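ARCHIVE CARD
CATEGORY: sequence design from structure
SOURCE FIELD: tokenized fold
FIELD CONTENT:
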């Protein structure tokens, strides 16, 4: 895990601001931080870094004239290897390598200028950078001096001139999206009150899909303002917490398979004795475990199955091309083609269902779009912190998990009772059971209907 910080500190010459940065870096255990508008260069910073508790840290800036430096980046060489790839007055591009894992991360530190005309160069840079950052995890953070929507401001003019579309259009074209965040909603204030008070979200942490795939639990935290009119931000590059039992989810793609109804009938026709409700719930549980095994055997790791089917089909075409009159190779190539196209259809349906996007026309295959949507939704839905009634903020996933269980046990009660009033039964034959009508004779319809699809997915 790596901790990244960025803060428009609005001058780093005063001891008060140096102390604030020192405490922030120590408390959040930062490995690299971007200081926006430091008003000093890396040479001067090296003189004061020791008294800020950053002994041995390396630094670089984006200015030829130290007094006009807009961005200063400093990092712990014991944790990261950093190479400056590009810099300009409004950005610094750093390629970082995490020494503990050897994973690479591209970080663009941003300082957007005040006028819309000046920021056009920044938007063009981000869109252009996207073309070379498709497969590389990319983080763009800093003071963009722009908002994404009218909800990102309070006070001041409520108009939305055309130039304010530049920022949202830019991040859409650049393939970036806002990281999930906690803390302050509005990251900048003009310090005034009443009708003159203005607050905006000008500081952003944006990421591409490759980053969300490499660090699914990455998120930002915006702290309260201290010695600047901007909030500091800390980005936690966290991996997914240890795997827990996943809830059961019914996949619509199963219903298109010829063997699906046979699997369902095989489970549903098993004799189970007891009262009707017990029979029903037992068969649902058996159905769920059977479909889990069915998924593991036929549709798990669907993208890997597609890649393998594509490789086999290409090989089959190559062999047929060498012996085009061979009937066995002709039949084999046809089978491989059908298998590949079937899996492609299932893959698109899988990601479409999981991303919950019901309709889109982007061409024949929308898998890439649905996969990105799934990553973004998964990232947004992640619970990164939880406040307890006594004001304690929990960040550890195990503590969050346990607190949620304790809360609902206290709310709902942990005891269980047999509300049916009938004797507890099992299906092992070891205990006497009350006899009741059996579902064995309740055959399923010959074609899938919506009844089963409504019941099974809800048991998650």
């Amino acid at each position: 895990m790596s901790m990244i910080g960025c803060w428009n500190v609005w001058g780093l010459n005063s001891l008060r601001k140096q102390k604030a940065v020192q405490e922030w870096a120590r408390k959040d255990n930062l490995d690299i931080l971007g200081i926006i508008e430091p008003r000093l260069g890396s040479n001067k910073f090296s003189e004061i870094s020791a008294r800020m508790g950053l002994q041995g840290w390396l630094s670089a800036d984006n200015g030829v004239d130290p007094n006009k430096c807009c961005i200063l980046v400093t990092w712990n060489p014991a944790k990261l290897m950093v190479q400056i790839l590009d810099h300009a007055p409004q950005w610094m591009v750093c390629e970082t390598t995490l020494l503990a894992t050897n994973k690479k991360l591209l970080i663009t530190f941003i300082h957007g200028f005040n006028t819309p005309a000046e920021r056009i160069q920044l938007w063009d840079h981000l869109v252009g950078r996207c073309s070379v950052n498709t497969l590389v995890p990319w983080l763009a953070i800093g003071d963009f001096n722009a908002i994404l929507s009218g909800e990102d401001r309070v006070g001041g003019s409520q108009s939305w001139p055309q130039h304010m579309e530049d920022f949202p259009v830019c991040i859409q074209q650049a393939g970036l999206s806002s990281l999930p965040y906690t803390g302050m909603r509005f990251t900048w204030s003009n310090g005034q009150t009443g009708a003159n008070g203005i607050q905006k979200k000008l500081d952003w942490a944006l990421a591409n899909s490759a980053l969300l795939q490499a660090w699914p639990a990455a998120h930002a935290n915006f702290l309260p303002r201290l010695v600047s009119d901007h909030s500091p931000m800390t980005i936690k590059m966290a991996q997914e917490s240890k795997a827990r039992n996943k809830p059961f989810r019914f996949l619509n793609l199963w219903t298109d398979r010829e063997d699906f109804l046979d699997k369902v009938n095989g489970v549903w026709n098993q004799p189970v004795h007891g009262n009707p409700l017990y029979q029903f719930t037992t068969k649902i549980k058996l159905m769920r475990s059977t479909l889990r095994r069915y998924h593991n055997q036929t549709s798990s790791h669907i993208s890997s199955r597609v890649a393998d089917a594509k490789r086999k089909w290409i090989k089959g075409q190559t062999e047929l091309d060498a012996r085009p009159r061979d009937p066995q190779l002709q039949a084999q190539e046809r089978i491989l083609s059908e298998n590949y196209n079937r899996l492609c259809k299932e893959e698109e349906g899988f990601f479409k269902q999981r991303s919950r996007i019901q309709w889109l026309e982007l061409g024949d295959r929308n898998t890439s779009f649905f996969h990105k949507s799934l990553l973004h939704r998964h990232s947004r839905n992640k619970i990164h912190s939880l406040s307890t009634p006594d004001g304690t903020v929990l960040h550890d996933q195990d503590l969050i998990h346990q607190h949620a269980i304790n809360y609902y046990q206290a709310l709902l009660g942990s005891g269980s009772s047999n509300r049916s009033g009938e004797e507890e039964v099992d299906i092992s034959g070891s205990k006497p059971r009350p006899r009741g009508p059996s579902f064995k004779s309740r055959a399923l319809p010959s074609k899938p209907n919506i009844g089963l699809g409504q019941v099974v997915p809800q048991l998650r």
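CARD ANNOTATION: The CA atoms of residues 361 and 369 lie 11 Å apart. The chain has a mean pLDDT of 83.
SHELF: design records, drawer C
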